[in-house]
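Task card 7
Instruction: Convert sequence to structure tokens.
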Amino acid sequence: MNDLQRGWYEMKFRETFRSRDGTGFQNFFSELMEMRYPGDFQRVKPYGKLGDRKCDGYQTSIKIVYQIYAPEAFKLASMLKKIDDDFWVRLNSGRIKCWGWRFVHNQWRGLPADVVFKLNNLGVCRE
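Output:
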């Protein structure tokens, strides 16, 4: 791949990433993960009253649950609540002990400090 081709793909990725929110962003993320990890990444489809049980995707080989948050309009309080709801539900049920957890978002300009601090305090920013 030459520099012109790479530049075009990078531009197309940025445009697609920045224009998706909600389910569109979740589908985009899942498509990327399926291409990168064929046969190892599983999409999770919400089902009835149970929904997706706070799991938007799962990477089998490393036992990682992906939780996606991609609102059309960012609201700090909503993001902090989403992190609390998803992480603590998983922790209280004991699943976090056997599954890892990744919080995926569409905030390409960066996250507010409060979100970074919360994720760091949960231990999910450390690798």
